[in-house]
Design a protein that fits this description.
This protein has helices at residues 3-15, 19-36. It is an all-alpha fold.
């Protein structure tokens, strides 16, 4: 049974005031959702994060390091 059918049956059970059936259907919907989405285990990448593992795209090369002997900073005009 899919989620839409379970929700339709739950709404009908509430309209018929069969709250026990509606609660069971609500729990089934919750169980269905918990199997569809799984979070990463906390702490895999460090404390307090659930970030996925970083992997650069295939064929990516890091950029060249800048030449430290060359400065492209213009001096300030005037004193402080």
């Amino acid at each position: 049974m899919d989620r839409a059918e379970l929700e339709r049956r739950m709404i009908q059970a509430v309209a018929d005031e069969d709250f026990e059936l509606a609660a069971r259907l609500r729990d089934q919907i919750g169980a269905l959702e918990s199997t569809m989405f799984k979070r990463q285990v906390p702490g895999r990448m460090g404390l307090g994060t659930d970030q996925q593992v970083f992997a650069p795209p295939k064929g990516w090369k890091p950029p060249k390091k800048p030449d430290l002997g060359v400065s492209n900073i213009n001096p300030r005009k005037g004193g402080r």
